[in-house]
Design a protein that fits this description.
The complex is a heterodimer of chains A (about 525) and B (about 725). Chain A is about 50% helix and about 10% strand. Chain A is of the alpha/beta class and about 525 residues long. In chain A, helix 2 links the parallel strand 4 and strand 5. The longest helix of chain A is centred in the C-terminal third of the chain and has 21 residues. Chain B contains 26 helices and 25 strands. In chain B, helix 9 links the parallel strand 6 and strand 7. Chain B starts with 6 loop residues before the first helix and ends in a 7-residue tail after the last strand. By secondary structure, chain B is α/β, with parallel strands linked by helices. In chain B, helix 19 runs parallel beside helix 25. Classes of the chains: A alpha/beta (about 525), B alpha/beta (about 725). Chains A and B meet through helix 1, strand 2, strand 3, helix 2 and helix 3 of A and helix 10, helix 13, helix 16, helix 17 and strand 21 of B.
C-alpha cells in the first residue's frame, strides 16, 4: 500500500425519532453521488423511530474503479462530522465517543426537545444545557451550533433542512453550496421552505455570532382601574422604593404587581406590610437575600390559584390574543376556545363566604347531593357569549374574595408560615430563607394541590426536630428538593426517615450527607420503574 | 394499505439487464427474488424486512406480469407453511420475517419442511434484529439451522454479495433438496448501495400450473416410516451434497494477505467491520486489501471442514469472529482442527465479547488484541478511540446531565388515553397484575405509565395471564393489539380464556393496522383494500368464539369512559372473560392521510376547522401531573421569564394534532383548568364570520367594563428579571 492511503469521510447523524434524520442522511448520499462520490448510509430504524434516539451513519469517498469496503456503524474516534439534531443528542454523541478533538466537526441544533424524565419531574427537571455546550467546545475539533428548531419554525420547514444548511455553511463537505441546494430541489417535496431553512441554517453558522442580547421584554403595562386605585398603587410603588433596600426592589416590584393584579392596590399594601416585617429582620447581607426571597414567596402565597383567579385569567383580552398567536389565527378569523374544567364541591365551598362554605363542607346532608350536581367534567366555550358571561361572573366574585373560605384558609396558613420564618430570622437567617422557599411546594389544583400542601406540611413539621442544629438550612433544602423529585413523595419520606437516624447535633454536621444524588440520580428516571406508580 | 405509496420503489423492481440499482439492501433482495424466477413469496412484516412486504404489496402489476403469487401471511408460521408448494413442485418460493422472533413462530412448519425436503428452491429471508435498536430478545437464528438441517447463508453486507446470496441460495436449495435461510442483519437491510441488475425471470412453472397438475410423493410427507428415512437422508445425502455445492461454487471466500502465518475467520456479515478494524490498525486498505488473510464464511451452516482446516494449516493462530452466543462456530472450529490434526491456536470469544453486538468499537478492540498477541509490531500506531476524550473533564460531567430518551407513544397516539385511563382506574381500584404483549402498546411499561409485568410473545398477552385465572380479590388484566389478535391471539388468548372459564380482563388495542411494523393492513382494518379482504370486526370474532361480556369503545380518547369501562370490567359480577376492544386509528397513519387533505381544503377555500390544544401559562402551576399521565411528545415544558416562578410550566408545542388526550386527562383526573382547545375556522361562511364578529364585539365590551373597575398589570421585565 504504497499509494496515498484513501480514507472515507465519515458522518454520524444523531436525531430524535420524527426529526427527519432519515431525510438528512438521504440528502447527504444524494449530494455525494451527484458530485461523483460514492456514498453509503445505514441506520437502525424501528421502534427507536417512535420518539427515541436514533443514529444514522454515512461514509463517502471519491468514486474509484474498485469497490470500497465501507463500515455500517460509526467507530468512536473515527467520525469526521457529527450532526446532532438536538442539544442533548450532541451530549450523547460526545459520550459515545463520536466526537474527538483531533478530527470531529460537531454541528448541533442548540434547541431542546425535553426527555420525559425532564418533563415529568414535579419541579424543574431540565438538564443543564450549559454542560453540553462546554463539553462540545472541549471534545470537538470545531463546534458550531444554532437553534435549528427556531429556524425550522420561522421558515415553515423541518430541522433537517436547517441542519443541511449548517453542514454546508460549516464547510464540512467538499461540495459547493449550489450542490447542496440542487439536492434539495431534486427531492421535489416542499422545496421552497426547505431552501429557506437551508439558507438560514447556512447563515446561522457562517455569520458572525449575534451578540447575545436578551430577548426584548415588553415594559410593564397598566390597564384600567379607578383613579383612586391607580393612586394607591403608585403610592405603594413609592413606598417600595423608599422603604426597602435597593437589591430587593426588582423582586418586590414583581411581587407587588402580581398581588395587585390578583386583588387590588390595598392588597398590595398588605403585601408590603408582610414583607416589611421580614425586611426588618434582614441584616442586609448577601444582597438582602431574606427580603428578596420574602418578596418572591409572599407574593406567590398571596396570589394563590383559586376559581376566581382562573376565571379572570381565562376571560382577559390579552388571553385571547395569546391563544390566537399560539394557533396562528388571524384577528378576524373565527376561533372557538373550549376550556376543560372539573369543578368539585371543595372549590365551590372555598369560593363561598367562609361560614357558609364551612357549613356545607361539614354537612353530609348537603355535601353529598351537591357533589353529585357539581363534581363533573365541564367544557366551557369562552368564545361563546354564555360561556364568557359565566366565567366573567365568576371573575367578578373578586370583590368578595376577602370573605371567602379559601382566603381565610390561605391567610391562616400564610401567617403560621411567616411566624416560623420570623422565629428563625433572628438567629438563623439561612434557615429562614429556606423556610420561605418551601412555598414552592404548594402548587396545582384539586388533588395536586392537596398533595403539594401535604408535602409542605411534612417538611415544615420536621422543623421542630431540627431545633438547635447548625445545619438546619441545609436540611430544609434537602427535604424540599426531595419533595420535588417525585409525585408520591417517596424521596421525601426517605429523607425524613434518615432524619431520625441522623447523629445528634454537634455543630460540625452539615446536612445528612445524602444530598440530592444519594437518593437517586436527579434527572434520570429508571426506564422500567418510575416513581409515578400511584 | 396505510396511506403510503411505494411507487418509486416498485419502479426499481422493473430494472433490466445491465442497469444499475441504487437503494436499500432489503429492496435489492426483493429485486433479486424476481431475477431468480421466484414463483411465490409470503411473509410477515416486522423490522427490518417490512419494506420487502410493503413494496411487494404495491407491486401487483409487476408480479402479475411475471406470474408471481404474493401473500401477506397471517403469521410467520403461515409464511413458512406456504413453502410447502416447493415440496413436490419445481417452483422457487421465498418467505420472510423478522428473526429470531419470527423463526420461533415458524419453527413447526420449518421443521416439517426440512424433514421432507424440497424440490423447488425454498429460500427463507430472515431479517436479523440483533444489537442496537432491537426490540426483541437477543438470540441467534443459527440454532434453528442446526436443529432442522437448514443451510444458513450470512453474506458480506454489500448489495452485490447479498444479491448473489439470493441466487446461490435457490441453487443450493435445489441441489440439496433442503430449504435455505438467508440471514441479513438490520444495518445491511437498510444499507444504501448499488448493484448491476439482470432481467426479471418469470417462474418456469407457476403455482397455477401446479394447481392444475397436482403431484404427490408419500416419501416427502412427514409420517413414519418416511420420517425415519428423511432423517438419514439429511445427513447421508443432503449434507454431503451441500458441502460439495459450497466448495464447487466457492460460496465462502478466502482473501490472501502477506502475514500468512495468522488469519481471521469471520461470518460474512462481519466483513466490513473487521476490514475497518484492520484498516485503523494500518493492516488493510479501504478496498479490503488485508495484510492478514481472511476466510469469509458466507455460509455459516454447514461448515466445510476441509476448507477450514486448509485455511488454518500452516498458521500459528487464527481469530474467529462470530457474533452472538452460544459460540457454535468456535466450538465447531476447535473440533474440526482437532480431527484434522491442525494445531493452530484459535482466538475468539476469549478476546471478543461473549455476547452482544459486535460494534465497531468491540471489533477494533478484539482485532487489535489479537494482533498484539500474535504479531506484535505489525499494527501501525493504533489509536484507541476512548483515550482521546478520557481526560476531558467537561465530557465526564455529561454522565449526570444527558437524560435517557426511552421510546414512547407518538404524538396523538390513540393508545396513550387507554393507558392514562388504566392508570386512573388503578389509582381507584389498586394495582393489578398486567400482562403485556408485543406491539406499540408495550411502551406502557415505560414511564410515565409504568404499566405491565411481562411480555411473552406476539399475541400471547392473554395466554400469559392464564395461570392467574383463579378466584381472588383482584382480576388480572392482559393487553393485546389487533396485530397480535389476528396473529394467534384469537385462539391462544380469547378461545383459551373462554374454554378455561377465565374470569380475567382482556384489553384489545385496535388501531386499525399492524402499526408497529409500519402500518400494514389486517383483517380488521377499516379502509377498503383492493387486494385484500378487510373490515372484519374484532368484536364479531370475539363473540364468535363465545365471549359474552364484550365492550367496544370506538373512541379511545374518551378517557373517562375508558376508565369507567376498565373499572367495570374489573369489578363486574359477570363470569367468563371480560373483553374490552378499544379502537381508534393509529395517528401516524391518520395524519399521513388527513394532513394533505386539510391543506388542500384550506387552499381550495373550503370551510375547514383546524384544532390545537394549549395551556394557559398563567394558570399552570408547573407541577407537570398532566405530563405524568400522558408522556405526549407535544406536551412539553416551557420556561417563563417571570422572576416569581421557579418551575417551568406545561406547554403544548406546534406538533399537537389535537387528539384531545391532555384535556380529557385533565378533566378525568381532576388535574387543573389550564388546558384549552382552540378551533380555528378557515374559510368561514359569511354568517359564521358575522356571528363571530358580533360575539367578539360583545365580549370585548364586557372586558372593557371589567377593566374599568380593576387594575390589570401585565408583568413587564423592566423592573424584574
Amino acid at each position: 500500500m504504497a499509494e496515498a492511503v484513501v480514507k472515507p469521510l465519515t458522518i454520524a447523524v444523531l436525531a430524535v425519532g420524527g426529526q427527519g434524520g432519515g431525510v438528512l442522511s438521504n440528502w447527504l448520499v444524494t449530494l455525494a453521488e451527484a458530485n461523483g462520490w460514492r456514498a453509503q448510509n445505514t441506520s437502525v430504524p424501528g421502534v427507536a423511530q417512535r420518539t427515541g434516539a436514533t443514529v444514522y451513519y454515512i461514509e463517502m469517498l471519491p468514486e474509484t474503479e474498485r469497490e470500497p469496503v465501507l463500515a455500517l456503524m460509526p467507530a468512536p474516534g473515527e467520525v469526521d462530522v457529527c450532526v446532532a439534531a438536538e442539544l442533548m443528542e450532541a451530549g450523547r454523541a460526545i459520550q459515545r465517543g463520536l466526537v474527538s478533538p483531533d478530527r470531529t466537526l460537531l454541528i448541533a441544533s442548540s434547541h431542546r426537545a425535553y426527555s420525559l424524565s425532564e418533563k415529568a419531574a414535579p419541579g424543574d427537571g431540565r438538564a443543564d444545557a450549559g454542560a453540553v455546550l462546554a463539553a462540545g467546545e472541549s471534545a470537538a475539533q470545531r463546534f458550531v451550533h444554532a437553534d435549528m428548531a427556531a429556524i425550522a419554525e420561522t421558515t415553515g420547514s423541518v430541522i433537517s433542512a436547517a441542519l443541511f444548511g449548517a453542514i454546508a455553511g460549516a464547510g464540512a463537505l467538499p461540495f459547493p453550496r449550489a450542490a447542496f441546494e440542487a439536492t434539495i430541489e431534486r427531492g421535489g417535496v416542499g422545496v421552497a421552505p426547505s431552501l429557506a431553512a437551508f439558507a438560514a441554517g447556512f447563515d446561522a453558522v457562517t455569520g458572525r455570532p449575534e451578540a447575545a442580547k436578551p430577548p426584548e421584554s415588553p415594559p410593564r403595562r397598566l390597564q384600567g382601574g379607578s383613579e383612586e386605585e391607580r393612586r394607591r398603587y403608585a403610592a405603594a410603588c413609592e413606598r417600595l422604593r423608599s422603604r426597602f433596600p435597593a437589591p430587593a426592589h426588582a423582586m418586590l416590584q414583581a411581587g407587588l404587581d402580581a398581588v395587585v393584579d390578583f386583588q387590588d392596590a390595598a392588597y398590595g399594601d398588605e403585601y408590603l406590610d408582610r414583607v416589611g416585617t421580614l425586611a426588618a429582620a434582614d441584616p442586609g447581607t448577601n444582597d438582602c437575600e431574606l427580603t428578596t426571597t420574602a418578596a418572591k414567596y409572599v407574593s406567590r402565597a398571596m396570589a394563590y390559584d383559586d376559581v376566581i383567579r382562573v376565571a379572570e385569567l381565562k376571560t382577559r383580552g390579552t388571553r385571547s390574543a395569546r391563544v390566537r398567536e399560539d394557533v396562528g389565527a388571524a384577528v378576524n378569523q373565527p376561533l372557538r376556545v373550549t376550556e376543560f374544567m372539573h369543578p368539585r364541591l371543595e372549590e365551590m365551598c372555598a369560593t363561598l363566604p367562609a361560614r357558609l362554605g364551612q357549613a356545607i363542607e361539614g354537612s353530609q346532608w348537603l355535601a353529598r347531593p351537591l357533589r353529585r350536581v357539581i363534581d363533573r367534567g365541564r367544557r366551557v366555550r369562552t368564545d361563546s357569549l354564555s360561556g364568557f358571561v359565566l366565567m366573567n361572573a365568576l371573575a367578578g366574585l373578586r370583590r368578595w374574595r376577602r370573605g371567602s373560605l379559601r382566603h381565610r384558609r390561605e391567610l391562616q396558613r400564610m401567617e403560621s408560615w411567616l411566624d416560623l420564618v420570623i422565629a428563625r430570622a433572628e438567629h438563623d437567617r439561612e434557615a429562614a430563607v429556606e423556610i420561605l422557599k418551601c412555598q414552592r411546594l404548594i402548587k396545582g389544583y384539586s388533588g395536586t394541590h392537596t398533595r403539594g400542601t401535604g408535602k409542605y406540611a411534612k417538611v415544615l413539621s420536621a422543623l421542630s426536630r431540627l431545633d438547635g442544629r447548625a445545619d438546619t438550612a441545609v436540611l430544609i433544602r434537602e427535604l424540599r428538593e426531595a419533595a420535588l423529585r417525585d409525585e408520591a413523595g417517596d424521596a421525601l419520606d426517605a429523607v425524613l426517615a434518615t432524619l431520625d437516624r441522623a447523629p445528634p447535633p454537634d455543630g460540625s454536621a452539615t446536612g445528612l450527607g445524602l444530598g440530592v444524588e444519594s437518593i437517586g440520580p436527579r434527572r434520570r428516571v429508571s426506564n422500567m420503574r418510575g416513581p409515578y406508580t400511584t | 394499505m396505510a396511506e403510503r405509496s411505494f411507487k418509486r420503489e416498485v419502479e426499481k423492481l422493473r430494472l433490466g439487464a445491465g442497469e444499475e440499482f441504487r437503494g436499500e439492501g432489503i429492496l435489492a433482495i426483493t429485486k433479486a427474488l424476481l431475477q431468480c424466477g421466484v414463483g411465490y413469496i409470503g411473509g410477515y412484516q416486522g423490522a427490518p424486512i417490512s419494506h420487502l412486504m410493503d413494496v411487494l404489496a404495491d407491486a401487483k402489476p409487476v408480479l402479475d406480469e411475471l406470474g408471481v403469487h404474493f401473500e401477506s401471511s397471517a403469521s410467520e408460521a403461515a409464511a413458512a407453511a406456504m413453502l410447502a408448494a416447493s415440496v413436490h413442485y419445481p417452483i422457487r418460493g421465498a418467505a420472510t420475517w423478522k428473526s429470531t422472533v419470527g423463526t420461533n413462530v415458524a419453527s413447526d412448519a420449518l421443521a416439517n419442511l426440512a424433514s421432507g425436503g424440497v424440490t423447488g428452491g425454498a429460500l427463507i429471508i430472515i431479517g436479523e434484529d440483533y444489537g442496537e435498536g432491537s426490540s426483541i430478545m437477543q438470540e441467534r437464528s443459527h440454532a434453528f439451522a442446526m436443529k432442522s438441517q437448514i443451510w444458513l447463508l450470512d453474506p458480506r453486507p454489500n448489495l452485490p454479495s447479498i444479491v448473489a446470496a439470493v441466487e446461490n441460495g435457490f441453487s443450493l436449495s435445489e441441489a440439496t433438496n433442503t430449504p435455505v435461510m438467508l440471514e441479513v442483519r438490520i444495518r445491511a437491510c437498510h444499507v444504501h448501495g448499488r448493484f448491476i441488475t439482470r432481467d426479471n425471470r418469470p417462474p418456469p412453472m407457476t403455482v397455477a400450473q401446479a394447481l392444475e397438475q397436482p403431484r404427490r410423493d408419500p416419501n416427502r410427507v412427514v409420517l413414519p416410516p418416511a420420517s425415519y428415512v428423511q432423517e438419514q437422508e439429511k445427513v447421508n445425502q443432503r449434507w454431503p451434497a451441500a458441502l460439495a455445492f459450497i466448495r464447487e461454487h466457492r460460496l465462502n471466500e478466502t482473501f490472501d494477505g502477506d502475514l500468512n502465518d495468522i488469519g481471521i475467520i469471520l461470518q460474512g456479515g462481519m466483513y466490513n467491520g473487521v476490514v475497518r478494524a484492520l484498516q485503523s490498525l494500518d493492516l488493510a486498505s479501504v478496498f479490503g486489501d488485508s495484510r492478514v488473510p481472511l476466510h469469509v464464511l458466507n455460509v455459516t451452516y454447514p461448515l466445510v471442514d476441509q476448507d477450514l482446516a486448509g485455511f488454518c494449516s500452516g498458521k500459528r493462530a487464527v481469530l474467529l469472529v462470530e457474533e452472538g452466543q452460544p459460540d457454535y462456530l468456535e466450538q465447531a472450529l476447535n473440533a474440526i482442527l482437532r480431527k484434522h490434526g491442525v494445531d493452530t491456536e484459535v482466538y475468539g470469544k476469549n478476546i471478543l465479547p461473549k455476547a452482544g453486538e459486535y460494534t465497531a468499537a468491540a471489533l477494533h478492540k478484539g482485532v487489535s488484541a489479537f494482533i498484539q498477541s500474535v504479531q506484535p509490531g505489525a499494527a501501525g500506531t493504533a489509536q484507541t478511540a476512548d483515550k482521546r476524550n478520557a481526560g476531558v473533564q467537561a465530557v465526564q460531567l455529561l454522565k449526570d446531565v444527558v437524560p435517557q430518551r426511552p421510546v414512547g407513544f407518538c404524538t396523538g397516539c390513540p393508545e396513550r388515553p387507554i393507558f392514562s385511563a388504566l392508570k386512573l382506574s388503578q389509582q381507584a381500584l389498586g394495582e393489578h397484575h398486567v400482562a403485556c404483549d408485543i406491539g406499540c402498546h408495550l411502551f406502557s411499561i415505560l414511564p410515565p405509565f409504568n404499566i405491565g409485568a411481562t411480555t411473552m410473545g406476539y399475541g400471547l398477552g392473554p395466554a400469559s395471564a392464564s395461570a392467574l385465572n383463579v378466584k381472588a380479590g383482584k382480576r388480572a388484566i392482559s393487553v393485546m393489539g389487533d396485530g397480535g389478535f389476528w396473529h394467534n391471539g384469537l385462539t391462544s388468548g380469547i378461545g383459551n380464556a373462554v374454554f378455561n372459564e377465565s374470569d380475567d380482563v382482556i384489553l384489545i388495542v385496535d388501531n386499525y393496522y399492524s402499526a408497529a411494523t409500519g402500518g400494514q393492513d389486517l383483517l380488521s382494518s377499516r379502509a377498503a383494500n383492493a387486494q385484500r379482504s378487510t373490515r372484519h370486526p374484532i368484536e364479531s370474532a370475539v363473540r364468535g368464539v363465545g365471549v359474552k361480556w364484550v365492550r367496544h369503545i370506538d373512541h379511545t380518547y374518551n378517557v373517562g369512559k375508558m376508565r369507567d369501562t376498565l373499572s367495570e370490567a374489573l369489578t363486574t359480577r359477570a363470569s367468563g372473560p371480560k373483553v374490552i376492544i378499544a379502537s381508534s386509528e393509529c395517528m401516524l397513519n391518520r395524519q399521513r392521510r388527513e394532513k394533505p387533505l386539510m391543506r388542500q381544503a384550506i387552499d381550495q377555500g373550503r370551510r375547514t376547522v383546524r384544532q390545537k390544544f394549549g395551556v394557559d401559562e398563567d394558570v399552570c402551576t408547573g407541577d407537570h401531573a398532566c405530563i405524568r399521565l400522558s408522556g405526549c411528545p407535544s406536551l412539553t415544558v416551557k420556561h417563563l421569564n417571570d422572576p416569581l416562578r421557579d418551575d417551568p410550566v406545561a406547554h403544548v408545542d406546534q406538533s399537537c394534532v389535537a387528539c384531545g388526550n391532555c384535556g380529557e386527562v385533565a378533566e378525568a383526573a381532576v388535574l387543573c383548568p389550564s388546558f384549552y382547545r382552540a378551533d380555528v375556522v378557515h374559510n368561514p361562511g359569511r354568517w359564521e364570520s358575522a356571528v363571530a364578529r358580533w360575539r367578539a364585539r360583545l365580549i370585548s365590551a364586557l372586558q372593557r367594563r371589567r377593566a374599568q373597575r380593576w387594575l390589570h398589570i401585565e408583568p413587564g421585565l423592566e423592573a424584574g428579571g
